Every structure is written in C-alpha cells, then in structure tokens.
C-alpha cells in the first residue's frame, strides 16, 4: 500500500460544502505533489476503512474541517496524541476520527499524526463547492501541508 513513509489523508464529505475541504485538497495534491514525497489519499467519509491506511504509515498528515466557532477559513495545526486532543466537532463522518485514534491506540499502532483543521461556519447539504472564505484558505493550507511534508521526509524545498 505505501510507497512512502508519509501519508497525506484528506477527509470529509464532498457533498456537504465546506465539510469536504479535506477531499478537495487531497484531489489537488494528488495532481500537484512532487512524486515520492508522500502518498495522498482521499479518505472521504470512509470511517473504519481508514484504519488500514493510518496503521500502514509511521507519519500521517490529516486534513479535516471543524465547526469550532472560529472564523471560516481559520487554519490550525494540531499534533494530537490522544483522542481527546481532537477538536470536539469533527465533521459528519460515519465514524469519527476520535474513534479511529482510540482503536489504533488500543492496538498500539497509532502513527505520528499532524492534524490540520480548517474552521467552517456550517455544513451545506448537497453542495460540492467551498465557501469563499474556505476556498481562499485552500492555497495557504496546501502550502503548509507541503512544507510540513518536506520537513518530515527531509526534502529540500
């Protein structure tokens, strides 16, 4: 499965507007990321199916939306070590990221996770476009993800 020691995983529901920003970014990175830097996966709303990916890499950059009350488009990087370190309102996935982290922790297979969350104002059902505020943050988010990936695999950039 892995051709790299680093996984970039974008999660979210593409059909729920800003909630799908992780998927939007994963699709861009699949086309634009230099070969060999990292494996990129659109995790969508896969839930427990993502466990196989998470346990296959020593390091994971995870991208998701959060309803945290901050202005839409606010980017934060979190390095969660426990499920309680994840923001409380993490998207509408069938199974939450907290559940995956708890499962991997119990199995002693939790990779080093670098979580980028982008604040969203609301979930927009049956919408595939990002709001102007979240769309405006996408380039900065992409830069931060690529910079971190290069640092993690020690690639000069």
Describe this structure in words.
With 157 residues, the chain is an alpha/beta fold. It has one domain: 3-Layer(aba) Sandwich (Rossmann fold), CATH 3.40.50.1450. It contains 4 helices and 5 strands. A 5-stranded mixed β-sheet has the order 2-1-3-5-4. The longest helix is centred in the last third of the chain and has 21 residues, at 132-152. The two termini are 26 Å apart.
Secondary-structure element pattern, one letter each: EHEHEEHEH
The CATH architecture term is 3-Layer(aba) Sandwich
CATH class: Alpha Beta
Proportion in helices:
25-40%
What's the structural domain tally? 1
In round numbers, the mean pLDDT is 88
Q: Please state roughly what percent of the residues sit in beta strands, choosing from under 5%, 5-15%, 15-25%, 25-35%, 35-45% or over 45%.
A: 15-25%
Main β-sheet, spatial strand arrangement? 2-1-3-5-4
By CATH, the topology is: Rossmann fold
CA distance, first residue to last residue = 26 Å
- Count of separate DSSP helical elements: 4
Radius of gyration over all CA atoms, rounded: 14 Å
Give the SSE layout.
Layout: E1 6-11, H1 21-32, E2 39-44, H2 50-54, E3 59-66, E4 75-78, H3 97-106, E5 112-119, H4 132-152
Parallel strand pairs: 1-2, 1-3, 3-5
Antiparallel strand pairs: 4-5
Care to give the gist of this entry?
This protein has 157 residues and is α/β, with parallel strands linked by helices.
Which keywords apply here?
5-stranded mixed β-sheet, 157 residues, 4 helices, Rossmann fold, 31% helix
């Amino acid at each position: 499965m892995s051709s790299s020691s680093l996984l970039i995983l974008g999660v979210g529901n593409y059909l729920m507007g800003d909630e799908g920003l992780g998927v939007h970014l994963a699709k861009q990175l699949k086309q634009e990321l230099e070969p060999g830097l990292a494996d990129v996966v659109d995790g969508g709303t896969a839930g427990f199916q993502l466990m196989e990916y998470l346990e296959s890499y020593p390091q994971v950059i995870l991208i998701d939306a959060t309803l945290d009350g901050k202005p839409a488009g606010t980017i934060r990087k979190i390095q969660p070590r426990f499920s309680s370190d994840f923001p409380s309102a993490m998207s509408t996935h069938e199974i939450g990221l907290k559940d995956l982290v708890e499962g991997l922790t119990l199995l002693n297979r939790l990779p080093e996770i670098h979580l980028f969350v982008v604040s969203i104002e609301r979930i927009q059902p049956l919408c595939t476009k990002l709001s102007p505020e979240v769309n405006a943050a996408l380039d900065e988010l992409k830069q931060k993800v690529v910079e971190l990936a290069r640092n993690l695999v020690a690639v000069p950039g």
